[in-house]
Amino acid sequence: MKLTELLQSNRPTVSCELFPPKPGTALLDAPSVVRRMAALHPAYMSVTCSAGGSGNGGVTTADMANEVQNINGITALAHLTCVAATRDEVRASLEDLKKLGIENILALRGDLPRDGAFPHPDGYHHASELMEEIRTFGGFCIGGACYPEGHPESATLYEDIENLKYKVDAGCEFLTTQMFFDNNELYKLRRSGIDIPVIAGIMPVTNASQIKRIMSLSGSQLPARFRAIIDRFAGNPAAVKQAGIAYATEQIIDLLANGVDHVHIYTMNKPEIAGSIMANLSEILQ
Questions:
Q1: Does the active-site annotation cover 17?
Q2: Nearest residue to 192 via CA among 222, 249, 149, 245
Q3: N or C end of the chain: which has fewer CB within 10 A?
Q4: 200/251 Cα distance (integer angstroms)
Q5: What distance in Å separates the CA atoms of residue 68 and residue 165, rounded to the nearest whole number?
Q6: Against a cut of 0.85, is the pTM above it?
Q7: Which H/E stretch holds residue 25?
């Protein structure tokens, strides 16, 4: 199923994100993780880009997307980055996904390389260029990313909104947000004139050590209420986990109550975390 069909319905949906194991860390239970996540019956499951590319000898994005969709029967959304890819490499990836019957791609630039080797001479500067490539190739539903608080590289939120409009013009059919912890930031984005579906990305913080990395990657601001939770329970891992699940659940309930019908959980490959949140929403999602 192409995700635009799902997103056009008025029924609330909750989906989940998985990531392939890093090279050298053979996640032998990757099929088990997918199977346990699929047992929660998410609307779809996204798979991030495999670290090190397809030649790392481990589980690739395509492998895991195949496990999600063709073995477990859940619609897969494959991430595809272009920051270090040539156009031939991107087309080869599109061919691989097409052969597997994967119809949905989240098109991303990706994190800039530390050595500054960007862009590739035969590559892409922006995610919008990748979207144009995918649209020309044909056959895929194309999604993109957005930052409710503005992309860290954008000078202003207005500039970031203009860049989102370039993505829409390039073929982007839906957006998934980076993690955020204050729903008001998303409500402001919804008033910006972007007229394609926006899926709210929610990160349940269940480990206090996640905070610094989250801040550096996303630029998300932590509301005082959230900081108080971490400060109070940082020395008690079980309490942080329970509080993180409760906070994410409350965020999702507020989003659904305010007309944001589609939520994506960044699961960190932990089916038990996603399962706890979805159990908390069992009647709300009926």
A1: yes
A2: 149
A3: C
A4: 10
A5: 31
A6: yes
A7: none
